[in-house]
Structure formats: C-alpha cells, structure tokens
Specification:
Layout (H helix, E strand, L loop, with lengths): L1 H5 L1 H19 L6 H7 L4 H5 L6 H4 L7 H22 L1 H26 L9 H17 L3 E2 L2 E2 H16 L6 H18 L11
Antiparallel strand pairs: 1-2
Helix pairs in contact: 2-6, 6-7, 6-8, 7-8, 7-10, 8-9, 8-10
C-alpha cells in the first residue's frame, strides 16, 4: 500500500486501460475493427478529413485483444512505477500523455505520407514514451535509478523495437515516435535538481 501511494498515476493508468478494455470488449469486441473505430481508435482519414482529432488521445486507451493489453500493462507496471517515483506523479503523467500523443502524431504523419491507412490503437506509444523518458533519466542520474541501469533499459528498448519491426500489424512509427517523445519530454521536464536521487 505504501508503494502504491508513491506511484498513484501508474496504478490509475493501468486500471483505466483495463476498465476501458472490458467496456469495449463487452459492447462489441476488442478485435472487431469497426467497433474499435466506434470506440475511438485512430484512423487517419477520420482524423484528417473528418476533424476527429480526439482519436489521437482516445486510441491510447484502447487495445486489440487481451494479449495486446497485457503486454502494454506489464511494461507500464515494471517501468512506470520506477519513473513515477523518480520524477513525481505530475511529470510522469505529462511524459506518458505527451509522449503517447507525439507517437501517434508521428504515425499519423507517416500514414499521410505513404497514403496507407490502418486502424490503430494501444498504449504502446505512451509506454515507449515511458521507456524513452527512463533512458533520459538514467543518463541524467549517471546510470542508475533504483535497481535499473542504463544497460538494462537500453537492452529492453532494443528488444522491444526489434520485436515490433519483426512482427506484423505493429505501429512501429508510434513506438519510435513515443520513445523519442518521452526522451524529449523528460529532457525538458526533468532537470537534475527536480529528480529524486536514488542509490545504485
């Protein structure tokens, strides 16, 4: 319970994603593309031509199936708590949301450029933002945050990106954009004087 008080935003985000998942699943199925679009998944023509810009945010809280949800929430649970305890709940939430939005904007830009449109949803852009922010914080912290080292997070990031690029149906643009967005947000928001010092 004491740890939960130190990372309330991580817990709230995980619970929110789970609740929304089951709500979408019970009202039509999370693997039904049309239903997911109705729920707020990202679809470039609707965003650009229809002016439905809210989809850039709502799509971050929708997932295609239980495995998709579980994978994202597991990484958020592992990294989110550490980042939130280090930078504070407000900065953590800003990194999660702004980084996720940046990831979706990169994906949107590439969709427009390629003229290849697919329905997209998932918290992975925001989760990769947390990963990117953690890389930045580790650099600022001289290589250690709690029990996590720069080497460990770089290996995790490399494997995560590799898995995405070698799998089909994955929005890699959102992953790369989210990671870059998270790094940039952390660089701006997390001045060394604002980061809680942690022992190696």
């Amino acid at each position: 319970m004491e740890e939960l008080k130190k990372e309330p935003m991580t817990a709230i985000l995980i619970i929110l994603n789970i609740v929304i998942f089951f709500a979408a699943d019970m009202t039509g199925g999370t693997e039904d593309m049309l239903h997911m679009v109705e729920c707020g998944a990202a679809y470039t023509p609707y965003i650009v031509d229809g002016g439905e810009y809210y989809r850039i945010i709502t799509s971050m809280f929708l997932h295609f199936g239980m495995e998709h949800l579980a994978n994202n929430m597991l990484v958020l649970f592992v990294l989110g708590g550490r980042l939130e305890r280090t930078v504070g709940k407000v900065r953590f939430l800003l990194i999660y949301l702004l980084g996720g939005i940046m990831g979706n904007l990169v994906s949107l830009f590439l969709d427009i450029r390629k003229q290849e449109f697919a329905v997209s949803a998932g918290a992975s852009g925001a989760v990769f933002a947390v990963m990117g922010a953690m890389i930045c914080v580790l650099i600022l912290q001289k290589g250690h945050v709690e029990d996590l080292t720069t080497r460990q997070i770089l290996i995790m990031a490399a494997f995560s990106l590799y898995f995405g690029f070698t799998s089909s149906g994955v929005d890699n643009a959102a992953h790369v954009g989210g990671m870059a967005g998270g790094f940039i947000c952390a660089l701006i928001l997390c001045h060394p004087r604002k980061i809680r010092k942690s022992e190696p």
